[in-house]
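[09:14] KT: can someone run the structure on this one? pasting the chain below
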Amino acid sequence: MAAREDAIIVAADKHKAKKHKQCSAKYKDCKESKCCKDAGLQCFQKNKKWATCMSQCDGGLNPVDEEPSKWTCKALGKRTPGPIPAPDIWTKPAAWVQKKCAATGEDCKKRGCCKDKGKQCFKKNDKWSGCKEDCVPGPDPIDSNNETWDCAAVGMRTPGPLTGGKASDWVKDYCAAKNTNCYESRCCKDPGHQCYMKTKGYGTCMKDCIPGPLLADANSDLWNCTALGGRTPGMSSAESPSKYVADWVKTNCSKVGENCLDTMCCADPTDQCYAKNDKWASCSRGCKVGVHKEDKDKKPWSCANLGPRTPRKWGKPTLYCYSVIRLQTYEADIMRMQAKTDDGIGIFGCDEYDVFAAQGRGWIGDGPNGPVWTQHFIDAPVTRSVDNTAGNTALFRNVWNAVREVGKWAFTDWTIKMDPDAVLFAPRLRKHLLPHNGKAVYIQNCASYTLVQQGGAMMFGSVEAISHQGMDLYFQKGVTQCNGNYQYGEDRWIGLCFQQIGVYPVTDPGILGDKLCVPGVFSCAGPDKRAAYHFYKDVGSWMNCYQQGKAAGI
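[09:31] RB: done, C-alpha cells below
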C-alpha cells in the first residue's frame, strides 16, 4: 500500500507541475480554475458566486464559512490525484457556529450544524437528527438506545479532534460478541470491534475487514465487508500477528502469473493481489502505480489491493528482529536489499521486524509482511565509552523505549537487536535459541580472554538476543532501575542491567562471528555455520557474505 501511495503522490506531483499555476489553494476560490493545487482536494461549489477546494462536501451549512448559508456542493472539475486528506481538525469554526448550531444531545435537523468541535449532524430517523463524530447506518453503541441510524449527513462537520465516547449499558446484553454472527444486532459488545457483513444474512464482529476472502475462514467465499452499525468505543485487546491460514488457500487462491481478480487472494506466502485494471490483477510482493516495462500492452497499473496479503508461517522459536539505521547512509541501502532478496533475509527473515530511524519516516521497501517504513525514535548524542567503543547508551535507551511502544516484542519468544552491517541467518539463530526458550536470559555471544572485567564473556551489540521473559523484566524493572553505568557502550550497559534485574546470561559464542571479538577471524562460508557475521559496511560485501553462507547451507 505504501508503494502505491508513493506512486500516487508522484503522479500528483506531475499533475501539480502542469496545473498548479492556475489551480487554487485549499479554501481559496476555485469557481474559475475548477481545480485544486493540493493532492486529494476537490473544487466544490457553494453557489454561483463562490466555490472552494476541500476534501469533501456534504451540502448544507459549512461551520468554517464566514456566513451561515447553504452549500450546493456541486463538484467542479476533477479531484486532484493523491490521498484524500483526513477531516480538518485545526481550522477555527466561524463565530456564528456557537449561536446558531445545535449542541450534542439536541435535535440538529432544522439547524443543520453542530456547535461542538469534531461533530457533524446526522439523520437518525424522520423525527430526530443528532450531532456525532461519525455515523455508520445501524445501531450506535454510544447512543442511549439500540435504534438504527439512517446516517444521512445534515450539513458539514465542525472542525475539531475526535474524542471517542463510552459504550452504553445496553451494548453488553444486546450486541454480538467477536467472531459471532452480528447481522441481526448490527453491533458488537467487545471494545474496538465493528460488525462487518460477509453476505446477506451473515456478518461477524472484527477489528477490521478487507473485502475478499478471509484466509482463516472455513471456505474461500468472498467477504463484502460493509460495516453494519457503529464501532464500539475503546481499544481492542492485542492479538498475535501470527495468523492461521486455511488449507484451501494453497489450492483456491491464485499463483504468480495468474489472474487473481476473482479469487482476490494469493497462494504463495508474502504475496498480495494487485489490480492492473478491471480485467487483470496479479500476485506479487509489491506494486508500482503506472506502466510496468515488462507489460506488452503498455497500459498502467492502478495497484489497488484486492483482498488480504497471504502471511508466511512463523518459525520456532518466534523472533522479533530490529535494526537502527541512519537514513542517508549505506545502512538504509543494506536494509532495502534485505527486504527484497529471497522473500526477505537478514532481519526480514524473522517473524516480525522493524527498522528504526531518528531522522524521520523513510521508505525501505516491500517486505514479507507488506510495505516497510521506518519507525521513529528520539535521537541522542553518541560519544566515546571508557572501552573506546561508541557511547550510545542514551540513544539505545530511547530505541528500547520505542520498541516497547511499537509492541511487537510481546508476541514473540525472542527479541533480536541487529546492527545493520551484521549478516543474519534467522534459521540458524532459531536453533541456538530454542533450548533456552521460556527462560529469562540473554545471550553472551563473545567469549574472549580480552574481556577480563566482563568475566571473559559478554553480549556484543552487533547481535543482541533476549528472551521474551527477559524483555518483560527489562520493561517492568530495567527502564526505571538501570540508571547507572552510562560510561559504557549500550551492549555492556544493558548486560549489566540484565544481571541487576534477574535476567541471566547464557554464553554461546557459536552464534556470532564478529571481527571485533578476539580472536576475530571468521568465514561466512565456514563449516561452523554461525547465525550471524559482523561487520560488512556496504551492500556488496554484505551480500557476498550472505551468498557464501547460503551456499554453505542455511
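[09:33] KT: thanks! The radius of gyration is 28 Å.
[09:34] RB: yep, looked fine to me
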